[in-house]
Amino acid sequence: MMENSHTRRSEFAITFFIKAAGYSSILLVTAIFIFLMKEGLPALGDVDLKTLFGSRWYPIEGYFGIWPLILGSLLVTVGAALVAIPLGVGTAVYISEVAPAWIKEILKPLIEILAGLPSVVLGFLGITVAVPLLRRLLDLPTGLTAFTGAVMLGLISIPTIVSIGEDALNTVPQSYRQAALALGATRWQTIWGVTLPAARSGVITAIMLGIGRALGETMAVMMVTGNAPVLPVQWNALFMPVRTMTATIASEMGEVATGSAHYHVLFFIGIVLFLLSLIVNIFASFVSSKQRRRAERVLS
Amino acid sequence: MKPMRLLNTRQQQVIGFNLLRLVSLVTVLPILGAVIYIFVRGMPAISWEFLTAVPRDGMREGGIMPAIVGTLYLTLGTAVFSVPLGVAAGIYIAEYAKDNALTRLIRIAIINLAGIPSVVYGLFGFGIFVLFLRFGTSILAASLTLSIMTLPVIISTTEEALRSVPNSFRVVSTSLGATRWQTVWRIVLPQAMPGILTGVILGLERAAGETAPILFTGAAFFLPRLPGSLLDATMALPYHIFVISTQVPGMPIQIQYGTVLVLLVFVLGMNLIATLIRSRARARRQW
Amino acid sequence: MDKFVIENLSLTYSDGAESLRGVNLTIRSNAVTVLFGPAGGGKSTLLRTLNRLNDLADVAEVSGKVRFNGIDLLDPKLNVTELRRKVGIVFSRPVPLPLTIRQNVSYGLEMAGERNKARLNAAVEEALRLAALWDEVYDRLDAPATAISGGQQQRLCLARVLALEPEVILLDEPTSALDPISTAKIETLIMDLTEHYTIVVAPHNVQQAARIADFGAFFLQGELVEFGVRDKIFLTPQDKRTQDYIEGRFG
After folding, report:
1. Largest Cα–Cα separation, chain B
2. Least crowded by CB within 10 Å, which of A58, B187, B251, C183?
3. Class of domain C2-94+168-246
4. Which CATH number goes with the domain that contains A76?
């Protein structure tokens, strides 16, 4: 009744495959990084630094200033954060601390639906509904603005913040709340004085990952922000068209000649995006390690 | 003297709770509204012809069948590459990896993969699969790109599902003379299967709806025939929606909504299946 | 004849908790050796060392020698899968695997490579009879193992081990989760089984220890304080600490 050598060999093969699969993620991240560098760093050679970080993005005439794109992404992302954080944290608090069970049963699936909506669908609704609406409502020359993009991105980021934030709040031991209530605090005071501070690291993680999601979003922004690569520095820049880094890559990659300066610069933008999301993610996982596993699942 | 409160704590709570209710409503109403609106405006376009015929007149008439088929191909292709690799990696982390620096490195790598913008995946896929490996704009290149993007989701959900299986099973199995793999294969994996399936479906759901990764790796707007091999490009619903809503003049709005509706139903359908699996498993749990 | 010879065994866990200190003990074959003493004494740790189940735990350091049938038990190159088939264990809480009753009992054999259905079924029946469970479950062998009572589940866990025809059976507080009737059944089983097996038990109270032991070993905070034949150690213990524990002065 001994295991025969055939079984032992197949077990060895399976174990090998599993180990290899485990290491594959390191391999892939490294491969992506190296490849981006390989194709993107030449941009520093093709275009001098002053132009690269200049303020004109007009590839046809050789202007590769990525600054308007960076600022465009930043503007839209910050706007999205201003929308998503109050709504996201508020909803998370509501679901976790206030809502009765039957409302939870309705809300949570709805949030999951939002999480699953393809960004192109949201972009579509953006241009068919939100853009004309905003144009009329705010009497703008066009509804394709940074503001529209910010609102859409905000909506996209909300499910991330709600899911991870709600998880974080649920992890706070019931005894904390009970202690506060026993001391005479109302539930409202307990939430803001005890529960939320206790879940602070998880909520911050949720926000960071939500922002990371907004930063990396492509289609929805591309369809509603007007794609005008101008420096958003005027006072009303929020209500003017703008272009993000992601939209730039998506709209121009198809037209570039391989190996050209334009090609290299697009990859360079890719490096910037990669590094930015790296920083956001490492920071988020630094802040909390317990929420990490669930965060990976929801973030994607 | 103590400062007068404008409102007592009880009143604060009432206002506060109502504020939270409002916030949640504002969050959720657009979702509900969007889904209902798409259904309402898209249903009129849905017909048997719409779903099974090829497009005519520059997509302005006829059906969207090639796009539907293309999305199915891409989803399948993604599954083929990402599921075995992702589940195996999840098994490694949950069942085999020791608690050392290498494992921490793997975790960091997964977090990073999870955070990479989808368009950067498209860039990578374009450079490596389309150009370097010479696959060209193809189902193969697009599927591989989507697979790498889907990998972190599958790895994480697999790991979580495996960890939720009580450790006592592993100890007992080992004490009866089973090897680590035998324990995983016979006891742990079957118990974790619903959770893993849920994660896989949610991951594939996202892959099905993504546009940026397939933009330059496999998607085409108009193809005279259905793709015949892995190296052919394909139409796909997300890309189709993007083009018809931004780049085709005179596109009947109804067809646009109809196409969006089809993608929505596809994605929501997967969501529903995943949710059903999850709740059924919870009810039948043996621990 | 000696089944296990333990020489100067010391074991520390990664969290710094020292669990065994210089234990010297001989386990005789075909007898019930009882490891008794208050919680934290190292009894569970010793049991799990005997079938190398401690490999699954966070053990920082192990020193000393343990010989099983003359072989070095602590050898890293030892085939532990084979070992565990010869040295089986029953835990304090019954843990049925999420399979049917039949599959639970045949699990060890299947993992060892046995495929023949007839042989498996025969082994299942024999093991269930030995564990005095056959009459109660013979008509529902394909029901999930969770469908039977706690006491029956524990006997199932014993049958699981018996199916592998081990040489040694370890039992870690096997009746702590059971009612008195089930407890009595298991105690009777234990004493009956010594005819063919070597038994090492960590009972969860002194009274049980005295009921079933052939030999007794008193453990206190990782040290083996005293060892002796049943009548000697329980009626006339040499060490004052043993006497105090037996008389219930501490626990």
Report:
1. 84
2. A58
3. alpha beta
4. 1.10.3720.10
